[in-house]
Structure formats: C-alpha cells, structure tokens
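Risk register update: the risk that structure generation would not scale has been downgraded. Supporting records follow, first protein first.
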Amino acid sequence: MTIENNTSLPPKTCTIEKLVTIPADIDKVVDGQKTATRRNGIYADIGEVMKLKDKQFIVERIYQQKLGEVTESDARQEGYQSLEAYKQSILSMHPGMKWVPNMKVWVHEYAPAK
C-alpha cells in the first residue's frame, strides 16, 4: 500500500533524525547504495528532508509492507547484497527478535534532494 500524501499517514512515531543512525548505513545513503529504510513506525513525512553528512535527501514514498513481502530487490534498496544478509543484519541489531513474515513495517524511500 503506497500512501501518496501525508493526510493518509498515521502520525509520526519518531523524528527523521532517527531514521538512519548507524554510521555504515549513513555512508551507504550518502554513497547512493541505500535508498530505503524500514522501521516499525513512521519517522518522516513525505517531502521531509533528511540531512546526512552535509547532504540532503528527500522522503519520496512511505508505505507499509509485511516482512514476508520483502524481496531481494528491497534488500538491495536497503544497501545489502541479498535478502538473507539484510535479515541477518536486522536480527543481529535486535537480540531476541524473530523474522515474523506477517509483521508490518513502514518503508521510507528517499533520494538526494535536487
């Protein structure tokens, strides 16, 4: 489900400054290797600008997705070589978490601001 405007989105549960915080992920965004972040809540509004290392990235799309629907292409969008690498990274960041296919996450897609 893609939401085209902010009026259809639930309220943000966090701030855009917390969307991408891991140094390796920041580097991936700045280098163009990471163009999306999945979170358990909404961390930005469509059109909001994220600043990383003096560069700006605009949030273009926000939509919900089940973990079981995440594809190899989605994993590459997250900056990983494969879905399995993405899964292992997520699980290592959240000790005790299981990859639950029906768990819903919010996908934030962004691109360099023009």
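Supporting record for the second protein:
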Amino acid sequence: MTVLFVGMTILLFLTLDAIVRRSRGRADVAAADIQSAARGYPVRLPEGIFFARSHTWMSLLPSGKIRLGVDDFVGRLLDSPSISYLKEPRQRVQKGEPILVLTEGDHSLTIRAPMEGEILERNDRLIKEPNMLKEMLFTDGWAYTIVPTRHSDMKHLLLGEETRMWIAEEFCRLRDLFAKEGGTNNIIPALLQDGGPPVEGALKCVQPQTWEQFDVMFLREAGEELPHFK
C-alpha cells in the first residue's frame, strides 16, 4: 500500500512538472514573438521607459519628477527638424495641451502633453542640437522635466510588452496612411522598405494633407476633438 502511495505521489509531481514546463514554454514562445515583432520595427523602446499613445516617452525619476520627450517613432519619420518650445518653466500644462512643435521645411507636427503637471525645466540644448532626437534620445534628448499633478496618471501609460505590441500596430496604421498617399502620386515605393517600416525622413516626401492626417491619427489621445478631413 505504501509503495502504491509513493508511486502515485511521484506520478503526480511528474505531471505537475510537465504542466509547469509546458506553460513556461508557451510563455517563452509568446515573449519571443513579441521580441521578434519589436525587432521588425527599428525604433528604440527601452525597458523602464513609459510611453503615451500621443508618441511621447517618459522617464520617472527617483524624486517623482518626470522627464519627457518625443518618441523614436516620430523622430525617425523626420529628417532634420527644427524644434520650438511652447511652454516655459513654472507654467502648468494640461493633458493634451500643445507643448512642442517639430518643423521640417514648410510643415510641422505638434507634440502634446501626455499628462497634467507643472513644468520645472526645458532642455534648450535640444533647439541647438536637434540631432539628439536620433543620437541621444533617452539621455540628453529629453524636452521637459515636469512634476505630475497625479502620479496615478502613469497607470494609463504603456510599458514593456504593451509598448511593443502597440508600436507594431502603429506601424501598420502608418503603412495604411502612406498607402493612401501612394494611391495619388505613386510615392509609396519610396517610403516603404520591401514590406518593412518606412525609411527615415519619410514624412518629407508626403503631401501637406498627409502631415495633417498624421497629426490627427498619431499625435492626439483618444477623445480629443478631431478636425474633419474630406
């Protein structure tokens, strides 16, 4: 009887071990799929950095302050933009309020605040060295330091795997936008790399209305009032 009990116990543990290994295997496969998808879109998405759906990134400092900047998705679509600040230190800012303008030639994109807070400082060095958006984005390429009104607003931001899944969807939406552009002037082959992401600086090749549509589709949070396009 004792031998039978021991045998059944061993069998139970072996079964549980097999289930755990199978679950871990599925998790590893899922993680590998996400990492593979992220590698397919050459934008920087560091661990520990928060992202807003309006394409800003945020780094939470130990003091509770937040440094924020423009994410790599927007930065890589521009060639050599000029940067204009719309806010000064000690000013308060509301979520969705314009805080930064990126200008390329005759066109511009407006970057909006991802949360409510008070601006402590801005990085004026970015005006003189806009290349930091590409070369030192998450170190010296920040735009503002703010004190958020509510740290609980951070829960609405994206982090880790959520960010990677979201950015893959954003590139799909971007390809759809550029496909419409290609339908009018056959420009899409110049913008897209053999089924991959758009080439760097791709926005400089598109029509003014596409800039406006990009602003509406990608640089505004859900719920903001949107202009009507014909």
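The beta strands are 50-52, 56-60, 66-70, 82-85, 92-93, 98-104, 107-112, 117-122, 144-148. On this basis the risk owner (M.S.) recommends closing the item.
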